[in-house]
Amino acid sequence: LLLNWRRPPSDSLTQAQQNLRQQWQAVCDSLDEIEQTFWRIHPSLSGTSFRLSTYQNKFAGLREALPPADYPPSHLQNLLRDSKGNSVFTFANLSEKTKKGGNISDEDKQLISRLGDLLQTLEEAESAEQSALTALHLDLLQAVREAMQQHKKTSRERNFDDLLTDVYHALTEGAHAEALAALIADNWQVALIDEFQDTDPLQYQIFSTLYGQNPECGFYMIGDPKQAIYAF
Q1: Minimal CB count within 10 Å: which of 34, 60, 68, 190?
Q2: Tens-digit pLDDT profile for residues 204-224
Q3: How many CB atoms within 10 Å of residue 97?
Q4: Per-residue pLDDT at 156
């Protein structure tokens, strides 16, 4: 089976990556100023939340992550979160963790919160990448399925699942669906399905179409729900 398939790039992923590059560059250009401002206001911040050694290590890690790379390293998120995984360099967190009587200007908090903005854009880019990867997998599966169906048509090959699908489409979409259903129900007026818990939804839909709305037919299902392998 030869698959000739090409998927266009994701616009949302491209935009998220572009936003991340821009935010990363903004942080790189101002990191010295951000760090100097942070240490200037540090005495006004909660010592429990902003331990000296912890944030010395965080800023050391941020400096090590500076360009030449135009894209932040994956471990950068850990430097921008606390031990509980919360973003620490945000305007709201800096305001909340300011000591009573402490005085930190909005301008200083806005400057430092560039690091919080960076974490947000990192998360958005990561989410966009995951969404694009999921969409790629689904599109590829669909392309393979369609290519396989076309291959079967040209090679005149059918398997058991194909036969079930053919019957289902003939009963639900075919030009003579009602006549076919009536003919089958007339030939086999009673259906008894043993081990019904192993009947899949497609098979059930076939039986339901044939017998579900026909009061002159009998449709008996015998099974043990506790042994079911399908949930429907």
Answers
A1: 68
A2: 899 888 887 777 888 888 888
A3: 17
A4: 79
DSSP string, the chain: -------PPPHHHHHHHHHHHHHHHHHHHHHHHHHHHHHHHGGGB-TTTS-HHHHHHHHHHHHHT-SS-SS--TTHHHHTB-TTS-B-SSHHHHHHTBPTT----HHHHHHHTHHHHHHHHHHHHHHHHHHHHHHHHHHHHHHHHHHHHHHHHHHT---HHHHHHHHHHHHHTSTTHHHHHHHHHHH--EEEESSGGG--HHHHHHHHHHHTT-TTSEEEE---GGG-S---
d(CA 225, CA 198): 9
Nearest C-alpha neighbor of 208 from the set 171, 177, 174, 183: 171
pLDDT digits (tens, 9 = 90+) for 158-179: 888 888 988 999 999 888 998 9
Q: Using the predicted structure, report yes or no on whether residue 155 has a pLDDT greater than 90.
A: no
What torsion, rounded to 10 degrees, do the Cα atoms 84, 89, 91, 97 define? 60
Length of the chain: 232
Q: How many CB atoms lie within 10 A of CB 148?
A: 14
CA 55/CA 151 separation, integer angstroms: 61
Using the Cα atoms of residue 108, residue 113, residue 118 and residue 119 in order, give the sign of their dihedral: positive
Sign of dihedral through CA atoms 104, 105, 106, 110? negative
